[in-house]
Every structure is written in C-alpha cells, then in structure tokens.
Backbone:
C-alpha cells in the first residue's frame, strides 16, 4: 500500500516549542466512481477550455491572468508573481495562537480534516509533548494556515498518537439558523408520541461506527454499471416514499410493534425482538 502524500510541510509552533510536521489528507475520493464526459456522437472524451467572451477563441494557460471585477465593470489584473509576493507567516508555520475546550467547538464550522504527524525523528518528542498537553486539558488549538494558496482558520486536536487538524468554515459562510428555523418552537407536541419515539431510539441505539456506513447511491451506480456490462436490464428504481402521514401516533405505534417493543402502564418495557 502506497503511503499518502503530504499536502503541506512546515512547523508547528506551541509557545517557544516548535517541531517539523507534515499534513496528510484524512479523506480520499479514490474509491468513488468517477465519470468522463464523452461526445455522444464519437464516444471520445471531451476536455474543457477557457474561451474569450469577446472572440469566442480558446485562451491558452500562458495567456490567462486573474482579474478582479470593479463596480464599473472593468477588471483589475493580478499577476501570479504579485500574488506569490503576499508571503504570510502561516505559509510555513502552524502556530497555536489560542485554545478552546473541545466540548465548546461548534460542529457546524468543521470542514475538511487532515492528519498531522512529525516530519522527522527529531520532531517526535516536542510533537508528543504538544499532543499530550492538549489531550490532558481536553482542548484544541486554534491557528491559521495557507493551503492551496488560500488562508484558512483551523482547529488542531489530539488524535491517537498524532494530531488532527480541521479547516474551519468562515462565519460569513454560515446561514443564520433563525432564518431557517423560525416558527419551529411554536409547534405543540404530544407527550405520548415523544415517549414512543424515545422507545424507538433506545431500540435502535448503536455505536458510532463509520466503517458500517454505506453509500447507497454509489452502490446503486455500481449495480447499474455491472448490469449494463452484462447486457442486463438496469435495477428497478427505489419506490417513492409514501406521503401525507394522516395520524403520526398510529404510525409510531406500528413502528413499536414492528420492532417488538411493548409499553407498560405507568412505565415502559420491551417485548421480545421480532
């Protein structure tokens, strides 16, 4: 098995302690099905190209330049060398600027994870000191880094024998919850239905094990591809869910029966599993 390639190398600075580290992506798309875009007529792959909006001609890579559109519709050109000149300290150093309790982290802001490991043997001891200090305090370090020519706020926390760095979404990217959830708190709920729902949760409760997760859409794609390769008819589409639940209480009670759960008077008890 080929070791994952580091996407960033630099230093982790923790107060006066610094150690060489490297980042390795914690996620991969290699196992996903990838499609090529083909010409329906020739069945040959097609490629994308940038076209000049004025002449409709292809603009080669060497003739492309970044432009910022001004209010008057004109563009301010930014040359590659000018952008590269904007050196940030976070381009080569991941500095732990301040710390937050792990329990206080708002999960909505977490974006993409990266494994953080020592880059050489000399970095192992200071790296371990930083990791254990964060673990004992149940804290995460907040920092910033330049990844793929973009500055990102990040959170660094203990992960086994290493550290996990997760890029954070910007506050401006988040949609105000109040604009989405307005009016939900006004709904009155039936205590009996909540009790039934709790019983179902207890019955179905399990451990969080991502290895058991299934991508049903990906699996369906695989089955369809296999069928087409063998000249068979594609799998039947999944039936649409039934709509317009008339009586939620009846539906929940039937769910209890299906799971073999009975409700005792004044208390609850589970029947034998179906």
Residues:
């Amino acid at each position: 098995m080929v070791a994952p390639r580091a996407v960033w190398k630099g230093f982790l600075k923790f107060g006066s302690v610094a150690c060489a580290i490297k980042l390795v992506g914690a996620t991969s798309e290699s196992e996903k099905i990838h499609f090529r875009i083909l010409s329906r007529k020739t069945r040959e792959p097609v490629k994308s190209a940038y076209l000049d909006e004025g002449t409709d001609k292809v603009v080669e890579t060497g003739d492309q330049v970044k432009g910022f559109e001004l209010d008057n519709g004109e563009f301010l050109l930014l040359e590659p060398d000018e952008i590269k000149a904007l050196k940030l300290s976070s381009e080569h150093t991941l500095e732990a600027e301040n710390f937050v309790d792990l329990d206080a982290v708002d999960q909505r802001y977490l974006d993409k994870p990266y494994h953080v490991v020592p880059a050489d043997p000399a970095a192992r001891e200071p790296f371990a000191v930083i990791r254990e200090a964060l673990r004992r305090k149940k804290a995460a370090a907040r920092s910033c880094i330049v990844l793929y020519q973009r500055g990102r706020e990040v959170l660094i926390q203990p992960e086994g024998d290493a550290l996990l760095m997760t890029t954070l979404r910007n506050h401006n990217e988040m949609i105000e919850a109040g604009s989405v959830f307005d009016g939900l708190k006004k709904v009155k709920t039936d205590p009996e239905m909540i009790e039934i729902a709790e019983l179902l949760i207890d019955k179905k409760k399990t451990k969080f094990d991502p290895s058991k997760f299934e991508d049903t859409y990906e699996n369906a794609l695989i089955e369809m591809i296999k069928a087409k390769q063998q000249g068979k008819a594609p799998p039947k589409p999944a039936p649409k869910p039934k709509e317009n639940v008339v009586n939620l209480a009846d539906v929940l009670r039937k769910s209890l029966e299906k799971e073999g759960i009975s409700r005792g008077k004044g208390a609850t008890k589970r029947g034998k599993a179906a």
Notes: The longest helix spans residues 124-137.
